[in-house]
Model the fold of this input.
Amino acid sequence: MKKIGAIILTTVLTAALATGCGNNKNNESNAAANGGNAAAGTIKIGANLELTGGQASFGDSALKGAKLAVKEINDAGGVLGQQLELVEADNASKSEEATRAAQKLITTEKVVAIIGATTSTNTLGIVPVAQDKKIPLVSSSATNPKVTVDERSGDLNEWVFRASFIDPFQGQVMANFATETLKAKTAVIYTDTSSDYSKGLQKFFKETFTKSGGTILSEESYQQKDSDFKAVLTRIKEANPDVIYLPGYYEEVGKILKQAREMGITVPFMGGDGWDSPQLAEIAGAAALDNTFMSNHYSPEDSAPEVKTFVDAFKAANGDLVPDGMAALGYDAVKLVADAITRAGSTDATKLKDALAATKDLQLATGKITMNETHDPVKAAVVLKFVDGKQTFEAKVNP
Amino acid sequence: MKKLKLNKSFWFGIVFSLILYGIIRVLLTTGVLDDVAESTLILVCINVMLAVSLNLINGITGQFSIGHAGFMSIGAYVSAILTLNFDVPLVFALLIAGLVAALFGVLIGIPTLRLNGDYLAIATLGFGEIIRIVLLNTEYVGGASGLSGIPAETTWTIMFFFTLLTIVVINNFIRSSHGRACIAIRENEIAAEAMGINTTLYKVIAFSLGALFAGIAGGLSAHKFYVINPGSFNFLKSFEILVMVVLGGLGSTAGSILGAIVLTLLFTALQNTPELRMIIYSVILILMMIFRPKGLLGSTGLSFMKFGKKEAKPDDVISESSSS
Done:
């Protein structure tokens, strides 16, 4: 029985020592964390991103974009006469780590605002912390509506903002593109039922497409990690729709496109930003990608001057790397915060939050942003067409 | 077989840990330890619960299970639904969650524990994945995006007492005649059966006891970190717990505790250097396995009075339990 005592003692003692040592420097009052005008020195912005783990490529892109924005702002003299400082925190692509990283950024680092995370799930781990500590949170690319509006109570999360458009908008954009540009009358929707993202896009595509007079011939579904889609594709081929809406992630989408083209389905396929990966062309093959379209946050080929400036600056800073959507949104998230600090004239959390909510006609890399009442930016989406396996700019769709 | 004795050392240990609990509590309320420290402490305790309960199955009973994240997810979902949809107080929700997880432990255990070695590992792995897929496709529990907005009700006090409960119950179980029977099964199942031990029964008991505490740990975790989704309970999570147990020393409760503490703190400390995080983590594991393949503590237990006293050797244990 001696051991029990020993074990308990060791647990508690070690835990206490280890955490105690790491944190006893944080004894200063927590009041400073809740804003107040930052005195001389730098203005800290936290970056709570997926730097390791399954979604590390998203987080890495967003961080590169955010760093570029901070550098540009500081080179131009900073904000309110002070330099911005980006404090990185890795959330390891896990929501509980995102929670802890947010606590650390707010309590230990005393940041004035947090940007991140790139996925909705991880951002949802940060939302309660931001709400609780009253620190503005700007997610770069969490597209799920429930990030800014609590799904149970329907209340607005007043401290939470995002830099991207939301899933419903992408569904609408592609539905309008199908009816107006592709002149489609009938469609089949092929959804990934293991992803809420896919289901969200499916729902709003269907709504908009039927409203503008189109007919949904059938709705099919698959699951992530499926690899043989021929049975369903045969049914789709028989239905013979004008377009097929395929709102999924690149891995399965690639296989579906490849198998569909092999089976002689030649009608256009359409999808969302889940297609946005160089791997799509590798999996499907360039030929299978002919006559396919996707909606995205921005296109590096967009000829608008603000996009060109951003792409050139990003390439210069990152060894000719072409920025993807995540990078552009990471950049925009920092610019959103900086703009709000300037307009608020202070880093006081409440003033900063109100300034963020009042963002109007702000020109950023992914378009002109106006925050609506649910803290979602109203801005344009782009439709991309694949030519020889490469994304090419097709159209910009304004809301 | 010695009777369970709650001797002086045991009570000294309890009192001492309560004092430590009190000190930490005071430090937390006065703000000396901030909420980052609190969440680290809670995460350490959650991992201790998971590691100690998995050690009972893998280390003590010798049944190679890698479905622990499955039990954890059952506990997390059951407790989250109870508090979110039915306004059940947290402690009751946790107990119900633990019991449901234990029930699953029995249901899964009866058919699969007839298997051994690799086959059992694969069966438990499959079980964990089935749970995940079922949750993924159940709209009631939020499908792929899971449940969010779970009230963060796990406090240091609740966490501490559940961790204490886990360690005391499991350690007492190991020291009891039932625990000895489990160790006998680990050492030699045929011999144990020949000595009249109902091997299936004891395996199922150990399995469901482990599942019970894994379920409670899952519930506590859900009520600290706001969000649960099927993706966070995949087989990698099971391996994470397994690594803690193996690192600490398979079969040693003290080792599991140490492994959980070391790995959790290591991971937290490396948060500032994301580029190196996984590299350092992996290098430490590789070095560990080269230089201390039996884990940090190996079969050595920690004694309150005498540091580093050897645990009873397995063959002693068998002779002890067979002579009783």
In short: Residues 7-39 of chain A have pLDDT under 50 and may be disordered. Chain A touches chain B through 58 residues (CB under 8 Å).
